[in-house]
Each structure stands twice: as structure tokens, then as C-alpha cells.
Amino acid sequence: IESSLDLVSTTRYDDQLERLRPPRAGLPAPILSGGRFAVVAYTTNAAVSVSTHSAPIRSSLDFSLHTVNGPAALEVPPTFEGSFSLTTENSMPRVHCDDSTKDPEDKGRKRVLSLAQVDSFTQGTTAWGTTKDRDLKSKAEIRSTNAPVTLSILP
After folding, report:
1. What does pTM read for this prediction?
2. Of 144, 153, 132, residue with least CA distance to 61
3. Which distant-in-sequence residues (6+ apart) come within 8 Å of 124 by Cβ?
4. Do the Cβ atoms of 140 and 112 come closer than 8 Å?
5. pLDDT digits (tens, 9 = 90+) for 124-143
6. Strands 121-128 vs 111-118: parallel, antiparallel or unpaired
């Protein structure tokens, strides 16, 4: 299962993607696990904000948000496991994660978040439990010029 969405704008862009799911005829059945989804959003002289509240477990989520002269913010669902990079100028990128979030697979695992931050660049990974010998499929790239960038991992 694969789905993608490309967004380009020269004005403020706010999008709330309530559920990423491939289009299907009729009423689609919920996707319980797997799938590949991509969102690309680009603006000039405006903010970009993408919020994805849910996605199937073990799915591949690929986010790419870029803006010039505007803030960039991405909210990913608790099922997001993978790498991320945040780049901006004139401020520190911010990563928000709630440590009390419940394991989406109900296996009692804790979220592991690793960060490396240098000036206006932050990169890292996040996963449920240990990342040893695991293929973390998802990725997020958030980039802005002259404005803050934020990644929030939703509870």
C-alpha cells in the first residue's frame, strides 16, 4: 500500500491530515499495519504546518517540509519510528516528545529518543524500545530559512 501528497504554496499553509490512508473505492477498511505514505510541503515567505494524528503501526512515513522566511512545524503520530533532521537559521530547532505516551502495540515498550544538536541543526532517531537490529522505516526532514522549526511526536 502506497500513498503520497505533494503541497506547494506561496501563502500560509496549514494542513491537518487526520488519517493517512491510500484512496480506495467505496468505504475503505482501516489499515491496521504497514503501508508507505509520503507528504511533501513547500512554501515561500509563509509558514508550513503539517499534523498527522494517526498512521498504521510498522508503516513507513516520509515527511519533507521546506519553507523560506516562515516557520515550519510537523506533528507525527505515536507510531512514527525513524530518523529526523531539522535545519534553520537564527534559532535552535525544537523537538517535543511526551515520555508518558503508551506503546501503540501495547507491548509495554518505552519510547527511545536520541538527539544530536549543533547550532541550528538537529538530527536524531526515535523508536519504541531498542533500535538494535531494527529497520526504522520512517523519516522526517524539516527545513526553514530565517524562522523556527519544530518536530512534535504526538502522545
Report:
1. 0.81
2. 153
3. 83, 84, 95, 113, 114, 115, 116
4. no
5. 999 998 777 677 889 999 99
6. antiparallel
Closest CA to 47 of 154, 152, 142: 142
Neighbouring C-beta atoms of residue 146, cutoff 10 Å: 13
Contact call for residues 152 and 110 (beta carbons, < 8 A): no
DSSP class per residue in 39-67: EEEEEESS-EEEEE----BT-EEEEEEEE
List the end-to-end C-alpha distance of the chain, in Å, as a whole number.
25
Banded model confidence at residue 66, pLDDT cuts 50, 70, 90: very high
What is the tally of helices (H) and strands (E) in the chain? 0, 12
Nearest to 74 by CA among 138, 19, 143: 143
Rounded to the nearest 10°, the torsion over CA 20, 78, 90, 11 is: 20
- Distance between CA atoms of residues 39 and 27, nearest Å: 23
32: pLDDT confidence band, cut at 50, 70 and 90?
A: low
What pLDDT, on a 0 to 100 scale, did the predictor assign at position 11? Answer: 45
Beta-strand ranges (E) seen in the chain are: 2-9, 13-17, 36-44, 48-52, 60-68, 72-76, 82-87, 94-97, 111-118, 121-128, 138-145, 149-153
Q: What are 86's three cell numbers?
A: 531539522
